[in-house]
Write a structure and sequence with these properties.
Blueprint (H helix, E strand, L loop, with lengths): L2 H14 L2 H6 L1 E9 L7 E4 L1 H15 E13 L2 E12 L5 E13 L2 E9 L2 H15 L1
Length: about 140
Amino acid sequence: MSAGDVVRALYDALAKGDVPGVIARLDPDVIVDEPPALPYGGVHRGRDVFVQSILGAMMGYANVEITEATVIDNAAGVTGILTGTLTAHSTGERFPLTMIEIHEVVGEVIRKIDVYTKDPAALAAFYARADASAH
């Protein structure tokens, strides 16, 4: 399995909501660096932390629909471009999501992911509105 195939398998699992499939593609000590403006922002270490802190937060606020996942695999590494829509559980508000991720793949698992969102401040505001309406 190529490094690009590993990332494609991760994105396929994410799109299906297949948490065991996501975990299978992450190194036990994976490092995920999310934009600090987000409620789950910062550096997260370990796949269990990833599932609880990032996936749990995202899915706790909204339904996540991945509409397109592009994987670019070259000598510099693997870059993923994800587009989709978040729909807030509490309000039904829809938010267009665009993320670029830089992956470090070792063998058949991802060791590190640097995540960049198109507009982290707008995404954080979406989460704040969703959270405020939930209480």
